[in-house]
């Protein structure tokens, strides 16, 4: 089903009208728009229509959701949590494909129709996590687009063979090369970055680096990343996830970094952590630095929280950023929708004629109110096909 007429909907909470989707694309929008005889018609009952959410950073291979509650009782240190996860994943009763499929369906039910997922690559895992996530996607690809980051969670230089496996992952479905805390995980910031930039440049892949390192070290590494992006002509192809160092930078340091990030086309993703200073997202956006929010790790051996709902992540940003006006709350919503699409360079995202026929209907008064109240998604449409209704995934998609 790729043809659909939605009646009585309010694009971006504006005036009520109809949206015609033909051959998977928005063909017309307006109060008098109709469709050809026999087209499926859905009454939107005055719901707000928005372009879909973009889940720009998640870990589909790590999810434990659906399994018995997992109690986290390891020290709050990166190495301890890495080792703990490896141990637990050796004996999980469900496959990567089963677990990843669960989370993908949940993301779609909450209105995300594009996911960028990191998958762990290591000599122990080999490419098994990549293959498991791709197997899950075989059953959901009508509802969600997927980008995969080959992620060296266990370290790269300290785990010989990892870089070669990451490069091999690019030939088997991944399109982004990951990195993690270059100095503290691998103990060689320049060596780590030179390796991942080398692979990405050679294979024309994008880059997405987890950077938790704080203070001066984090800022120094952001500088190294920007330097390499510019030298290799990779502007707009590199994202830094978390970048906690920007949350504690002085005004002068922040101004210098924003110049650098904008010039080198480095994007920033934040999961809006609970107790850690995070980048000033709205200030970055106003300055011209591409940025968005995303879920990151959820319901796994790292984090007991999270539910794959990007509207909740937008609310979290608005809460932690003290958004009060309608304009500020609407800007928070954009961080999970339009800005996510811009960050990942998604052609066709939007509610204009010619865009993909993908959208989310939400019952509410306006965009500010839906960020605060987070209503269930009434309908999720992917290229003209209804893939979720009333907050629930529809098996196989349909009407
Ligand atoms: Zn992550």
Automatic annotation (TrEMBL):
Gene3D superfamilies: Metal-dependent hydrolases, Urease, subunit C, domain 1. NCBIfam families: PRK05985.1 (NF004636). GO terms for molecular function: hydrolase activity, acting on carbon-nitrogen (but not peptide) bonds, in cyclic amidines. Residues 41-388 form the Amidohydrolase domain. Coiled coil: none annotated. This is Cytosine/adenosine deaminase-related metal-dependent hydrolase. Keywords: Hydrolase. InterPro entries: Amidohydro_3, Metal-dep_hydrolase_composite, Metal_Hydrolase, Metallo-hydrolase_Enzymes.
């Amino acid at each position: 089903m790729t043809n659909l007429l939605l009646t009585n909907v309010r694009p971006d909470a504006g005036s009520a009208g109809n949206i015609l989707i033909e051959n998977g694309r928005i063909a017309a929008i307006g109060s008098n728009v109709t469709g050809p005889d026999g087209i499926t018609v859905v009454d939107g009952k005055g719901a707000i229509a928005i372009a879909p959410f973009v889940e720009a950073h998640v870990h589909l291979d790590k999810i434990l959701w659906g399994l018995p509650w997992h109690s986290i009782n390891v020290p709050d240190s990166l190495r301890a949590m890495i080792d703990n996860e490896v141990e637990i994943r050796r004996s999980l009763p469900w496959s990567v494909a089963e677990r990843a499929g669960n989370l993908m369906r949940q993301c779609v039910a909450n209105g995300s129709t594009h996911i960028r997922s990191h998958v762990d690559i290591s000599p122990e895992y080999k490419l098994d996590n990549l293959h498991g996530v791709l197997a899950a996607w075989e059953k959901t690809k009508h509802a969600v687009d997927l980008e995969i980051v080959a992620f060296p969670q266990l370290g790269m230089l300290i785990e010989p063979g990892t870089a070669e496996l990451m490069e091999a992952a690019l030939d088997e479905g991944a399109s982004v090369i990951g990195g993690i805390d270059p100095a503290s995980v691998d103990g060689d910031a320049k060596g780590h970055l030179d390796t991942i930039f080398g692979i990405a440049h050679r294979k024309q892949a994008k880059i997405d680096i987890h950077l938790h390192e704080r203070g001066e070290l984090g800022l120094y590494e952001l500088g190294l990343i920007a330097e390499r992006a510019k030298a290799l002509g990779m502007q707009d192809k590199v994202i830094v996830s978390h970048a906690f160092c920007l949350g504690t930078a002085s005004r002068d340091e922040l101004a210098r970094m924003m110049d650098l990030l904008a010039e080198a086309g480095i994007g920033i993703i934040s999961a809006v952590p609970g107790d850690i200073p995070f980048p000033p997202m709205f200030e970055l956006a106003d300055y011209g630095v591409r940025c968005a929010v995303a879920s990151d790790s959820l319901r796994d051996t790292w984090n007991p929280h999270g539910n794959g709902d990007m509207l909740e992540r937008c609310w979290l940003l608005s809460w932690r950023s003290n958004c009060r006006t309608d304009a500020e709350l609407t800007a928070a919503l954009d961080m999970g929708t339009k800005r996510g699409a811009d960050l990942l360079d998604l052609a066709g995202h939007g509610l204009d004629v010619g865009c993909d026929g993908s959208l989310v209907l939400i019952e509410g008064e306006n965009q500010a109110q839906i960020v605060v109240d987070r209503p269930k998604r009434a309908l999720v449409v992917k290229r003209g096909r209804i893939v979720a209704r009333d907050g629930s995934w529809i098996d196989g998609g349909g009407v």
